[in-house]
């Protein structure tokens, strides 16, 4: 084993010495490239960058929430859940009507037993439906508020039961509470 190592080093030495000076390229040293910024200039640029960043952040923080939501849009779950500003009563009524349309279109997912999507949709709508129902109540006259509160409570109860039965998944009970939820939300929309 030692002879093979010795032969290898001898071959490498031979090969290295066999290279002629004509085939070797001369190593030219290139001048070192240095930054043209001085320390003071770099510090000034850092200050400008930090000031710009803080000024932009402060400007966004001082911007009213409603306009911020309009700039970002409110279609995604995270924006609706965490960054959605308090809606006006008219907007709350519109969102309740959209929720009613969405619940009516949920039938197809129930027929296909797509439980995961049904659970996600119901929980998403439950997250802000309570706030919308409270906001929308201010648009009603005093004479209709008692009936509205009863229908809204029935809607919230039936949606929570629907969520419970879809989670287990109990098919008959899911359909039963789905129909009760549709009836309750249609009653709420009719009162609005």
TrEMBL record:
Span list, region Disordered: 17-40
Primary localization: plastid
The keyword Methyltransferase belongs to this UniProt entry's keyword annotation: no
Biased composition (Polar residues): 30-40
GO function terms (MF aspect): calcium ion binding
Protein topology in the membrane: Peripheral membrane protein
Annotated GO biological process: photosynthetic electron transport chain
GTP-binding is among the record's keywords: no
Any Gene Ontology CC annotation: extrinsic component of membrane
Compartment list: Plastid, Chloroplast thylakoid membrane
Keyword terms, alphabetized: Chloroplast, Membrane, Plastid, Thylakoid, Transit peptide
InterPro entries: PsbQ-like_dom_sf, PSII_PsbQ, PSII_PsbQ_pln
Family, as annotated: Belongs to the PsbQ family.
Protein name: Photosynthetic NDH subcomplex L 2
Protein's organism: Monsonia marlothii
Species lineage: Eukaryota, Viridiplantae, Streptophyta, Embryophyta, Tracheophyta
Protein encoded by which gene: 2
